[in-house]
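User: Teach me something about this protein's shape.
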Amino acid sequence: MSTPRIVCQKCIYYYVTWEQGKPHGCNAYGFKSQQIPSVVVKSSSKSDCNFFKQKQR
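Assistant: First, the predicted structure itself:
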């Protein structure tokens, strides 16, 4: 059984930086990166993002 994939664009902490080379940002973890933040968190900590919170429509 697998956990659902985290889609950062649907999270309240995700933002677009508009910086060339680091277009994705995460206010919860406080970083900008070239990759989607959930991928960076998974690769560096070996666990899924703990801060994901769905945006309200």
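Now, about its shape. The first strand starts at residue 14 and ends at 19. The CA atoms of residues 42 and 48 lie 5 Å apart. If you'd like, I can walk through any region in more detail.
User: That's plenty for now, thanks!
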